[in-house]
Amino acid sequence: MIPFAGLSLSVEKFLKDQSMRCDATVAGTIQLFAFRGCKPVYDRGRIIGLESQSVPWKVTDRYDDIMFVSGFKSHRKGGGRFSAIHPLSTQPGFASFRLPYYRPANRGCPVIQPGQFAYKRGTHRGKKALRAAKRILVIRDLDDDTRIEPTDMWDYPHPDRGINIHAGGRSSRVGLNSSGCQVLRYGWFGKQWKQFRNFVYNTAAGQMRFHYTVMDTAFFELWLDAEDKTPYKRLWFGSIGLKVRRLQKALADAGFYHGRGVDGYFGPKTHEAIRKWQAANTAGVPSGVVRYSMLQSLGIAI
User: Fold this and answer.
1) What is the pLDDT of residues 118-165, one digit of tens each?
2) Nearest to residue 53, comparing CAs of 39, 43, 66?
3) DSSP secondary-structure letter at 26?
4) Cα distance between residue 15 and residue 48, in whole Å
5) Which of 4, 61, 120, 251 sits at 20 to 30 Å (Cα–Cα) from 245?
């Protein structure tokens, strides 16, 4: 179990450890973190922790993920650190996989993958929501069987394609409320969405970008429990910094990446280059996630 007490600090440490951005640093800022395959643990009506509950890649048609929001309120709004959780689905509902739009070849229903993604305020069907500000990493389920398999296709949808964060339905089933979007349960007029919208539009009114991290709960728990964090350090889609620059430079030297693209941001081109390297140098299915063993194989100091 992941203890709820001190979780906001644990999330911040995890983001730094994985070379990701941490937004909640000063008053009036918030951090958005999605735990995939997760349920809250309660004791006498109070939440005491989070517990992994399902295989993260398995589409369940339920709100079995958690949106964890943490940050700092301004002095004008009471001041101090705060955190909250909201029932979430990071995956489409069953009904969405059968929509005619996703039937043509190479256009399967998108399922967001672990990583960090940039969002901004906007609208979804005329209502206040969060819209992607950069490309998102998804797998498209080409055979519509709601199982993520090696034969499915990696894709990087343009922000205009609408992998948004918005309210879902009141039912326990996701259904047509999501065909790739990240949806909070209990509807547009429910308490959960109203609270989340208040965090985004009022608590963090001056924050222009929201970096939304999606992570498997089981992996976060392993990282949290490990005394030696090194085996659980990764570079993900959305990671930034010196290690990413070194990775890009090594991939370019090996002929898998264009040298002019060395910018320290792990985006679509870096992800494609990594998968090509993995296909050429490992026996497993290319994932695009970089373990530190791969950095060592490329001669990059960790």
Assistant:
1) 999 999 999 999 999 999 999 998 887 777 788 889 999 999 877 999
2) 39
3) S
4) 22
5) 120
Domain boundaries in the chain? 2-221, 233-297
Sequence-ordered alpha helix ranges (H) in the chain = 7-17, 191-198, 217-225, 242-253, 268-281, 292-297
Burial of 219 (0-12, 13-18, 19+ CB in 10 A): buried
Which DSSP category does 108 fall into?
A: P
Give residues with Cβ within 8 angstroms of 22, minimum separation 6: 12, 15, 16, 31
What pLDDT score does 78 carry? 63
Superfamily of domain 233-297, CATH level 4: PGBD-like superfamily/PGBD (1.10.101.10)
pLDDT per residue as tens digits for the range 253-266: 999 998 788 999 99
Q: How far apart are CA 134 and CA 163, in angstroms?
A: 10
Residue 208, burial from CB neighbour count under 10 angstroms (0-12, 13-18, 19+)? exposed
Provide the token pair at 161.
């394609």
Give the pair of three-digit tokens for residue 232: 């659980």
